[in-house]
Amino acid sequence: MKKKIIVPLLLLLVVAVYFAVFHKDKTLRYIPENADTVVLIDSKKLMGQYLFSLATHPSSWSGSDTKSKSSASFKDSGIRIPDFLQIFHIKDTKFSEWYSVFELKDPQKFITFLKNQQFTDNGNHQFQKNQYFVRIVGNHCIAGNSDLAFETIRQQLLTSSEHPVWDADKLIQNTLGSISFVSEKKVQSFSIELHDDDIEIKNNSNQEVFNSIASKLQKGNQFLEVELDQKNLKNFTYFLDKGMADSLRATSFKATANLEQVNDTIISYEYDDNFNEVEKKAFQKIVQPNYSIDIQSQDPEKAWAYFESKKFINEEGQFTAILFQPNKISKNNKGLNIKSTRNPVLLSPLLKENYILVKNNPLLYSPLKTLSNTEKKIISDIEYVLYGNKSNDYWLKIKAKKGDLPLILRW
Prior knowledge:
Blueprint: H1 2-22, E1 27-28, E2 35-42, H2 43-55, H3 65-75, E3 79-80, E4 84-90, E5 99-104, H4 107-116, E6 120-123, E7 126-129, E8 132-137, E9 140-144, H5 150-159, E10 166-167, E11 177-182, E12 187-194, E13 198-202, H6 208-217, E14 224-229, H7 230-237, H8 244-248, E15 250-271, E16 277-297, H9 300-309, E17 327-331, E18 335-340, E19 354-359, H10 373-381, E20 382-390, E21 393-400, H11 407-410
Antiparallel strand pairs: 1-10, 2-4, 2-11, 3-5, 4-5, 5-9, 6-7, 7-8, 8-9, 11-12, 12-13, 13-21, 14-15, 14-19, 15-16, 16-18, 17-18, 19-20, 20-21
């Protein structure tokens, strides 16, 4: 009799575990047709990695109460957690604008949750907290760090049923997440992997080239190191000006920069009792970079003319597109040079590789006063960010400082 009861219970347990852990709805309903970049996060894989890390680090158990309470409150917020979190960028919008759409189990409970999180009700079912926006549309909500495309997203995804539906297998393959660049001709996807002390985004498992670049760059102590060839330069300047690289006829880009805290003079004027103008000086400490930039060009004259047409060169020969002054731009038969003049910096040795390295620096923290304590902690925990490219292989690594806990428990 006991066996007859135990066997069905075991079967039910197996089925429950399968649906809770392994079964995933791979239908991506909330990606608009005009999305050009899509980020997917496997929610179940993320939760599994979190639980495994929690189980293998007993030292974090006593400190996990706050995190578990906050996650529980989000879980009970009235929002439905999808198997694949879908975050997207829409073509021809600012690079900083990203959006996502969620289903709601209980819209009223979700509104209460937003108010408890200090979101302001802006009317018309739209809420805002700092740079984050949420709009409730029936049993769905649109979230983003901008609200400019909310109406377009509503019309495409929540009103019309004719938009194309993606399958997750086209964008992600057994990794924690992916970032995919979508064009009419193809989709190029990069895996996102979360390790104990770093996050990696890449399209190739071969690490030798990038480890070699990283080891060479670790010897320096500059805040920023950049070296890009013509293809990489064109990719990065595309977000600033689609035609910039072609207008500059640039073949390579090299830059080195560090940070310095300097005294800035603020001059204001007041009037005395006799209405005479009196100059007043005040001083404040600000963080400014010292830098050296070299742009190699096939046609330096054309590159100079392009910057002049954009009003980037003033009468004093300064490059005004860089806000931190003073600097000096000059031209030679190979290209253009831009250097800060307050504290000159020498370019680092040429590695003939493609990379961007940004190292953490305590001087970064003072301008970040508007960030939350959590955001400041994450930034202070980062050791460096490194981008690398070799042929058709790309790699981005966010390296955190060594810690007693893995990143998933720290952040």
